[in-house]
Amino acid sequence: MHIPAEVREGLQKLGANLKKMESEEKFRLIDSYSGLTALPIQPEPGRMIAGRPRLSLNDPSYLEKYTANIASLLTEGAPETDKRWLHLDDNTSIYNRYFKEQDVLDIFQTRVFQETRILELSVFHAVVAGVWSESFYKQFEAQCDGVIDFKAVEDEGQLENFVRVRSLRGKSCDSRWRHLHLGSNGEIALENLSERKKKEIGISGWLKGPKKK
Question: CA 118 to CA 26: how far, in whole Å?
Answer without folding.
Answer: 19
